[in-house]
From TrEMBL, chain A:
Protein name per Swiss-Prot or TrEMBL: ABC transporter permease
Keywords on record: Cell membrane, Membrane, Transmembrane, Transmembrane helix
Sequence intervals crossing the membrane: 21-41, 279-307, 328-361, 367-389
Family to which this protein belongs: Belongs to the ABC-4 integral membrane protein family.
TrEMBL record, chain B:
Family stated for the protein in its record: Belongs to the ABC transporter superfamily. Macrolide exporter (TC 3.A.1.122) family.
CDD domains linked to this entry: ABC_MJ0796_LolCDE_FtsE
Keyword Transport in annotation: yes
GO cellular component terms listed in the entry, alphabetical order: membrane protein complex; plasma membrane
Name of the protein in its database record: ABC transporter ATP-binding protein
Any one Pfam family match given in the protein's UniProt record, by short name: ABC_tran
Species for this entry: Candidatus Cryptobacteroides merdavium
UniProt cross-references to SUPFAM superfamilies, sorted A to Z: P-loop containing nucleoside triphosphate hydrolases (SSF52540)
Gene3D superfamilies: P-loop containing nucleotide triphosphate hydrolases
Ranges of residues in domain ABC transporter: 6-245
Entries under InterPro entries matching the protein: AAA+_ATPase, ABC_transporter-like_ATP-bd, ABC_transporter-like_CS, ABC_transpr_LolD-like, MacB-like_ATP-bd, P-loop_NTPase
Key words, A-Z: ATP-binding, Nucleotide-binding, Transport
GO MF assignments: ATP binding; ATP hydrolysis activity; transmembrane transporter activity
């Protein structure tokens, strides 16, 4: 009949019972707030992992020696030495799906500069390394191909190393630092990157020509790994196939023989982590969804009691001309108003809680607009769904019986 | 002279309770013209309330036809009857039946809330006029629990008037009130009668019959007496003769 009037009637009825309406809402408020917060936390975790992976280079490919690991079998030393500089050079020559490629060897130890020392490690890499890892030179410059050819005793250091070895603020460029008695001249400083989500300091890094690290620091002839980057993220698959082909040829592996190397892509890692975080989000959302359901049942319960309690009122309304649909609409509007108001408060509460988690616990939190829309829609549906039965019961009352109800 | 508002033709109403059939009304026929003030009397269980519910379109007869303002009601759907009640009927109940925690004016506005032809402004205006007509012009914002029984019944009467009904139906409207307040309400009904309204008033009190224009007596579902009262007493005079209550 008249929507505005019915709306007014329902609003009045709720206003007459504010406390009860609020307590009924509480279930919805908590339900919606927890859905939003849980999804925000779940998606926050996902996004921070994604950011990190793309920060590390989302098209990065890592090649390691040793075949595919089968449960618990220890790899012997020779298996760990299958990657050679020749492999790196072959890949560099032949692969068209790669934009950058760099060997990787690592020497750990105490870094010393004057009176200061700091335990760290030096990565022996090629010039492409900074592009692959998406690092930027802040001061000075990257070492050159010539440095690599000459096994020059030069290095580029990260901000943490600067802070620890040059605490008094002197310019590290041109200074000599030592690792295991080998002096390395600092030619560049990397831009600071900060900590990653796993709590690793990305600025605790020293890179030097791989030839220098292999010959002067480690005295080895094999590589610990090769880093490469695919032309694009989509091309990662092709790049992996290409690398596999080149390496098998290099290692003279026959058909049917297992690879004696292992290729991992950042994309693979990111897919895996996405699956995990999505599962986490779904789980959290399910738990929160259950509380929303419980809230809905709360509405049904209260509306049901309210219909019984207000039987005479319903009878009176019918006697002055309210039709069944009017009564049905009134109770439905009441239920929906409760759930929508609860939904609004819940959305605000959920956003507030998410921000609180962000500021207080320093968790990465991303409020998802779709989760707000979704929980809001669910709320309205909840109101209609759980309000329907009591409202129908009210509308089906016989006016005379209702008026006589004690 | 004046037109017929209510016409009952052989109205029967049976209730089936378990195996038994209760004959509440066994063939009631009469008609009521516009402007009549009819009292319906009879012993308890004689079928007065059943009759009134049928007159008020809350209930439908098992047999017979009922014409309200010329409209046959028996075959009407539930919804149509609701609309009919909304436009043509004003109810006054023994226990007032006001909405709790609600002001007088909102209670009176209620029937118009279900009539979309009436704007909010008009609704309020009519409710105020109605409350003034029952002498509660100064109690507009009082809530139901802040009023005496007599005042609550006046609000209920104002609510019955607000839709300008074809007929006002009262079921023992003075049953819960003391003598003095009962007469005050009766004065109000007589005033409405004088204004030309049609009133049907169910009561147990035989004295009230002398203040109405016609008296119908029911017994066991039959009309046993239907007399016109040519010598209508004035409730106002009777009220003046009553001893004053201290608390009024
Ligand atoms: N819903 C019902 N179901 C079964 N029987 C009913 C119902 N309503 C009324 N009756 C029966 O119909 C008869 C008339 O009842 P009604 O309420 O009309 O009496 P009344 O004249 O109003 O009595 P009172 O003066 O006590 O109010 C009674 O015998 C009653 O038991
Ligand atoms: Mg009765």
């Amino acid at each position: 009949m008249n929507g505005t009037n019915l709306f007014k009637i329902a609003l009045r009825a709720l206003a007459n019972n504010k406390m009860r309406a609020f307590l009924t809402m509480l279930g919805i408020i908590i339900g919606v707030a927890s859905v939003i917060t849980m999804i925000a936390i779940g998606q926050g975790a996902k996004k921070s992992i994604q950011d990190e992976i793309s920060g590390m280079g989302s098209n990065m490919i890592m090649i390691h020696p040793g075949g595919e690991r089968r449960g618990g079998v220890r790899l012997d030393a020779s298996e760990m030495q299958t990657l050679k500089v020749a492999d790196y050079e072959a890949l560099r020559e032949e692969c068209i799906f790669l934009t950058g490629i760099s060997p990787n060897v690592t020497a750990s130890g105490q870094l010393i500069c004057g009176n200061n020392n700091y335990p760290s490690s030096v990565s022996g890499v090629g010039t492409d390394y900074i592009d692959i890892r998406q690092l930027n030179i802040g001061k000075g410059e990257m070492f050159s191909e010539t440095d690599i050819r000459k096994s020059a005793k030069v290095c580029v250091i990260g901000q943490t190393i600067v802070d620890n070895l040059f605490p008094d603020g002197t310019n590290p460029i041109g200074k000599i630092i030592r690792l295991n008695q080998v002096p390395l001249k600092v030619v560049g400083v990397l831009e600071a990157k900060g900590y990653n989500s796993m709590g690793m300091d990305q600025d605790d890094i020293v890179i030097a020509p791989y030839t220098t690290v292999m010959k002067r620091l480690l005295a080895i002839t094999y590589l610990e790994g090769i880093f490469a980057s695919a032309v694009s993220e989509d091309m990662t698959e092709y790049a992996i196939d290409e690398i596999t082909e080149v390496l098998r040829k290099q290692h003279k592996l026959k058909d049917g023989e297992d690879n004696d190397f292992e290729i991992r892509s950042q994309q693979e890692l990111s897919n895996m982590l996405n699956t995990t975080t999505d599962l986490l989000t779904t789980l959290l959302a399910c738990i929160a969804g259950i509380s929303l359901l419980v809230g809905g049942i709360g509405i049904m319960n209260i509306m049901y009691v309210s219909v019984t309690e207000r039987t005479r009122e319903i009878g009176l309304r019918m006697s002055v001309g309210a039709r069944s649909v009017d009564i049905l609409a009134q109770f439905l509007i009441e239920a929906v108003l409760i759930s929508i108001t609860g939904g609004v408060i819940g959305v605000l509460g959920g956003c507030g809680a998410s921000l609180a988690v962000k500021w207080l616990a320093h968790w990465p939190v991303y409020i998802q607009p779709w989760s707000v829309v979704l929980s809001f829609a669910v709320c309205t549906v909840t109101g209609v769904f759980f309000g329907w039965y009591p409202a129908k019961k009210a509308a089906d009352l016989d006016p005379i019986d209702a008026l006589r109800y004690e | 002279m004046s037109k017929t508002v209510i016409e009952l033709q052989g109205i029967k109403r049976e209730f089936i309770v378990g195996e038994e059939t209760v004959h509440a009304l066994r063939g009631v026929s009469f008609s009521i013209k516009e402007g009549e003030f009819v009292t319906i009397m009879g012993s308890s269980g004689s079928g007065k309330s059943t009759l009134l519910n049928i007159l008020g379109c809350l209930d439908t007869p098992t047999a017979g036809e009922y014409l309200l303002d010329g409209i046959p009601v028996r075959k009407m759907t539930k919804n149509k009857r609701a609309v009919l009640r909304n436009r043509k009927i004003g109810f006054v109940f023994q226990n007032y039946n006001l909405l709790p925690k609600t002001t007088a004016i909102e209670n009176v506005e209620l029937p118009l809330m279900y009539n979309s032809d009436v704007s909010a402004a008009e609704r309020r205006e009519r409710a105020i006029a109605s409350l003034k007509a029952v002498g509660l012009g100064d109690r507009l914002e009082h809530k139901s629990n802040q009023m005496s029984g007599g005042q609550m019944q006046r609000v209920a009467i104002a609510r019955a008037l607000v839709n300008n009904p074809a007929v006002i139906l009262a079921d023992e409207a003075t049953g819960n009130l003391d003598t003095r307040t009962s007469f005050e309400i009766l004065v109000l009904f007589q005033k409405l009668h004088a204004e030309g309204r049609t009133i049907i008033f169910v009561t147990h009190n035989p004295d009230i019959a002398s203040y109405s224009s016609r008296n119908i007596r029911l017994m066991d579902g039959h009309v046993v007496e239907d007399t016109e009262n040519r010598n209508i007493l004035s409730a106002e005079k009777t009220l003046a003769g009553l001893p004053l209550n201290e608390d009024e």
